[in-house]
Specification:
heterodimer, A: about 260 residues, alpha/beta, Rossmann fold, 2 domains, 6-stranded mixed sheet, 4-stranded antiparallel sheet, about 25% strand, globular, B: about 260 residues, mainly alpha, MetI-like fold
Amino acid sequence: MDGSISISNLEKVYGEGAERTKAIEDLSFDIEGGEFVSVVGPSGCGKSTLLYLIAGFLERSSGDISVDGTSVSAPGTDRGVVFQDYALFPWKTVKENVLYGLEEAGVDGEEADATAQRFIDMMDLDGFEGKYPKELSGGMKQRVALARTLAYDPKILLMDEPFGALDQPLREQLQDRLLDIWEDLGKTVVFITHDVEEAVYLSERVLIMTRHPGTKKDVTEVNLDHSQTREEVITSQAFTDTKNAVWKELREETKSEVEP
Amino acid sequence: MATSTLWEAERVPAPFDRVARFAFDWLPLLIVALLWSFVSGAIVPEAILPAPLAVGAKMWELIVTGTVLPHLFISLVRVFLGLALSVVVGVALGVGMAQSDRLEDFFDILLALTYPIPKTALVPLAILWLNVGTKTAVLIVFLACLLPIILNANNAAEDVDQNLLWSAKMMGTDGRRLLWKVVFPATIPEIMTGVRQAMPIAFIALVSAELIASNQGIGYLILTSGQLGNYPTMFANIVIISAVAFAAVRGFEELRERVIVWT
């Protein structure tokens, strides 16, 4: 059980009759356990819908999504989700937020406490355990959200434009932190973003989606050497070439958006 | 961002600022008292409109002799019971209606129709069912407070952030547990706002009910002293219940700040 995801002939339709819109059409895609995949596409291409379908928040209209060979029917602790707006429980402190998933899983007492503290420390949040989310900056809130999700140890991280609301330096910090976590903990990551640079920098593969209804346009393999520093990676030829290739494909889709 | 300001020491107002602020807040009340003093005697005979000082003296007398205290006590019990009952029923209904369309459809029209009814108009009817006394007063306070509390709880429960619910579901919370772990805590701030809004209504309803349907309580004292032409006592009781209601609301606001430290 390594956190692989298999999507076949997926279709999602919203509404009925005249209101009926197809958000996702005939999408098939496999993600290996431990893989880091980003999904990019023009706005309204259904990339968030895809993520919510994998999460089990939405019901698919047809086709199948399975995680480790089991068809997804509801949310569950084998997956963890990180939202752009953090979705922290405002009435809980940092520590209580991180403890939540553990308590729900029946872990409590010292064991839960130690695990929560480990992820709080990993996210450099020590000293902030007793703070409420409103007392934290956006970057810190997202680190709490990550700690909360990692604490209950899901095999798959589903991330919906998690760094979209942060400014550039913070976003870069959190990207590098996420890469470290991914390398250390071996999670499967599905990362939704509209930022091509972010997608290419982070992932092993980039899934490019077509504009409405969304389906797979292309998949780009990324081969970057992350043992290098961020500066070296970003300025490397491989990075630039891959970024340009993804950008061009995306551009074809967004260009057609101007048509009536 | 917001964090940086958190670590700055709060600006401590200079003593003079505080005094000035206090004086400013209470100035309108002072003006009303002065106008009242002027009108009483000069324009309206003092027998009908006793001067504030006379009312103040009467208040003092009512309090130190203890004559008002049993009535005040019974009034407070009634207002507390009515309000507490409306919070229990109102929150359950408001949150319940947000969870279940069937429940919402069932109550929707009833609530919309009964909202504009002045609940104090039901006192004569309530006397028929429950006789004169505490039960009637509690029922009227309960009915008067119920709708604002239902509405606040309902709005809050309908507006619970979808991502919070999804996050909790992802971590294994579902069904009724979701209600306790997420929906309810998320609605507490607005529930308390609803209670705060209902408090003055509760006192209005209380006094109205006691004026008609009681042998005890501040409303009863107001009525009987008025009927006997003892206007200083009547005014003194009106001021006492206003002051108590004011203190109750302020106290509750203080409590609210302490309970919902996270907002």
